[in-house]
């Protein structure tokens, strides 16, 4: 299948304040985004793709002159791919608080002239969705043919269906959950402690000291990465393989290949990701819980949704297990919503939603074929 080729990010400035769930507001901000494909005459083929924790607006295609710059969902989005940009107008938006161009902790706080650092306001999934909706308003897109996301992106897709039920025709939620389990929150908390106890953190104002809390970021990424893989995938890839022929009998040296892999992932992550952004995003994950305002009853929460749904899970994903997806499906069925569910038998754990699995991609492709037919036939079953 063809690639999108080179793509160029765009930015949009908002002088109006973004009022946040916390009661704070982002007075003056910019969002970075990319679009692929062509918006049709009646603007009925727009698809918003929401990004996960360490991703961005760069969903597909490459940047000219930048090697290995494929978008994070390049295997799924593009000409002739399951989300076919020859038929759909796809939008990726970088969320506020990110470190990939949209206004975040490293940008200047208008109140002080210094980088926000730890003073950047806490943002939620709902805040991100609000910001995305404002950008779509500027693009003249009132209704989305679909909103899609995996993991944290799936939470944003669910939130879209509840915050703006009249603006979403289809919601595609992949490898996600209606909220984090206590175990998930625990992993996030350990990762955050690793960052804030790094001597280079300086209370979140490390930009002013010209340092980066890389040690904390490395550990945070190593913790996160363990949760993205399945036990079987780790066993198959690394097993108990040693780096050297003989044990070194050291508590500090790398002995096992899995240790080497995790340290490599941690080092790489600490070179490009921002520590304050990591704190903000993991907290947004912790907070997401649409059932909270309904006494913990997810079915009552999902009663607002009007979209049709595709929910996809992976058998070896223990971070957001299939059981969590089935909670979403049940809540939708309790409200007699149109929902399709696919549980893909894949060995890769949570990361499976980013990989090219033929069965998984076939499910997504078939669902977008359905959406395309509805658009072509001008149907609006709502």
Automatic annotation (TrEMBL):
UniProt domain AB hydrolase-1: residue ranges: 45-356
Main subcellular location of this protein, as a coarse class: cytoplasm
Molecular function GO terms recorded: homoserine O-acetyltransferase activity
Keywords per UniProt: Acyltransferase, Amino-acid biosynthesis, Cytoplasm, Methionine biosynthesis, Transferase
Gene3D superfamilies referenced in this protein's UniProt entry, alphabetically: 1.10.1740.110, alpha/beta hydrolase
EC number: 2.3.1.46
Domain of life per record: Bacteria
Pathway involvement of the protein, from the record: Amino-acid biosynthesis; L-methionine biosynthesis via de novo pathway; O-succinyl-L-homoserine from L-homoserine: step 1/1
Pfam families referenced in this protein's UniProt entry, alphabetically: Abhydrolase_1
Binding of substrate, residues: 221, 351
Catalytic site positions: 151 (nucleophile), 317, 350
Subunit structure: Homodimer.
Entry similarity comment: Belongs to the AB hydrolase superfamily. MetX family.
Functional note: Transfers a succinyl group from succinyl-CoA to L-homoserine, forming succinyl-L-homoserine.
Name listed for the protein in its UniProt record: Homoserine O-succinyltransferase
């Amino acid at each position: 299948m063809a690639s999108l080729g080179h793509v160029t990010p765009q930015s949009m400035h908002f002088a109006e304040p973004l009022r946040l769930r916390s009661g704070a507001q982002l007075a003056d901000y910019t969002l970075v985004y990319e679009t692929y494909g062509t918006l049709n005459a009646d603007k009925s083929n727009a698809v918003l793709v929401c990004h996960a924790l360490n991703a961005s607006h760069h969903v597909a295609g490459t940047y000219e002159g930048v090697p290995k710059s494929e978008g994070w969902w390049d295997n799924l989005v593009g000409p002739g791919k399951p989300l076919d940009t020859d038929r759909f107008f796809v939008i990726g938006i970088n969320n506020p608080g990110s470190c990939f161009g949209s206004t975040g902790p490293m940008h200047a706080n208008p109140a002080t002239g210094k980088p926000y650092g730890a003073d950047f306001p806490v943002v939620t999934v709902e805040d991100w969705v609000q910001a995305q909706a404002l950008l779509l308003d500027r693009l003249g897109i009132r209704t989305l043919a679909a909103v899609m996301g995996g993991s944290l992106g799936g939470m944003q897709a669910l939130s879209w269906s509840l915050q703006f039920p009249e603006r979403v025709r289809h919601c595609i939620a992949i490898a996600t959950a209606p909220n984090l389990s206590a175990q998930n929150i625990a992993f996030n908390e350990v990762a955050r402690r690793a960052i804030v106890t790094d001597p280079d953190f300086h209370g979140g104002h490390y930009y002013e000291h010209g340092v980066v809390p890389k040690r904390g970021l490395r550990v945070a990424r190593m913790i996160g990465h363990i949760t993205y893989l399945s036990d079987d995938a780790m066993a198959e890839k690394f097993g108990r393989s040693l780096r050297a022929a003989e044990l070194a009998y050291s508590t500090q040296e790398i002995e096992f290949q899995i240790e080497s892999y995790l340290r490599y992932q941690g080092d790489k992550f600490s070179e490009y990701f921002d520590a304050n952004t990591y704190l903000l995003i993991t907290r947004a994950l912790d907070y997401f819980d649409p059932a909270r305002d309904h006494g913990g009853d997810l079915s009552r929460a999902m009663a607002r949704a009007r979209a049709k749904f595709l929910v996809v899970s992976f058998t070896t994903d223990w971070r957001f297990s299939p059981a969590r997806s089935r909670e979403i499906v049940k809540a939708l069925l309790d409200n007699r919503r149109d929902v399709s569910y696919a549980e893909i038998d894949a060995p890769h754990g949570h990361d499976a939603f980013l990989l090219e699995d033929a069965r998984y991609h076939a499910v997504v492709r078939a669902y977008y074929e359905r959406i395309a037919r509805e658009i072509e036939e001008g149907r609006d079953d709502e």
